[in-house]
Amino acid sequence: MTRKNDGFTLIETLIYSAITTGLITVAILTVYQFIDGAARLKYHKELAENQKLLEQKIYWALQSVSAVNSPGVGATTTSLSVNKIGFAANPVVIDLDSGIVRLKRGAGAATQITNDYSEIANLTFHQHNFDGRPAVKIDATLVNRQASTSIDIATTILIR
Quick count: other Cβ atoms within 10 Å of Cβ 159? Predict the structure, then answer.
């Protein structure tokens, strides 16, 4: 007598269901990793752009300077104040306020340099001399909490 096989047994169905569930789980986790990686990359790129803008604004402020008001020689402060040659809106002040770097020209209102995607954990300026030429050392840490990443700035700019 021959037995007719019309379908799967219960064990076969359970095995195929487990394999399908495993494949779907791996696919979902892989897609999630791609989406999360893209978001982290976006936040890191935004942080790098904030770093570049901040460095450019500080470099601009330190060009064609007639006097450095703050910090004094040998001193370290959290704000930079300079008078620029031929600039009507003196002094130019760059400071840190609640994690945001601001730029103020003369008596005008301070404008935000960095955006809301980054927070500045610290910002310090230290003035010293290189063979009689004034220079300002800048230290800062930019943080993006959503991407759990940070960028450190440590640079010295000779004043022209």
Answer: 19
